[in-house]
């Protein structure tokens, strides 16, 4: 999947250095609810496990050929969002140097177009911490609609006292 600026492609072991460079930034992961990466080896392990599936992609910047973020969907996680049966959770992040450039919006639109064309998924759910409104704007630009707020299990990374705004997209076939 690609646009003029980006490619959504599978993660490769060779992306570990780039993943670590961006995912170790303390301003990136905590906004999405995960801890900053501590080593290149940890980043490689995440590529080989969490990112090793058919519905998680690296966001590659065509200009540099570098993985600058992630985009994906899958079974609703332990974050306790009010998902419907068979309703996947979407998630994404982009490296801080690329914030506010429309890259996440472009990647999310690319992925939702792919889901509409290639799957029988009827709706998608997602959410963002209310202290990260930029993530919500990305979803809204792509057609997600706010459905309310929830609180997650405080044992989740940085989950305590961080309400989540829940959004859903109905996929019309």
Task: Give a nutshell description of this structure.
This protein has 173 residues and is an alpha+beta fold.
Describe the protein.
The chain is an alpha+beta fold and 173 residues long. The chain has helices spanning 16-23, 29-32, 40-48, 103-118, 133-141; strands at residues 6-9, 56-61, 66-74, 89-94, 123-129, 145-150, 164-170. The radius of gyration is 15 Å and the shape is globular. The mean pLDDT is 91. Helices cover 27% and strands 26% of the residues.
Strand content: 25-35%
What's the N-to-C terminus distance?
20 Å
Helix content class:
25-40%
Largest sheet, in brief, is:
4 strands, antiparallel
Overall average residue pLDDT: 91
Helical segment count: 5
* Shape estimate: globular
Strand order of the largest sheet: 1-2-3-4
Please give the number of β-strands. Answer: 7
Helix/strand order: EHHHEEEHEHEE
Low-confidence stretches: none
Taking Cα atoms only, what radius of gyration do you get, to the nearest Å? 15 Å
SS class? alpha+beta
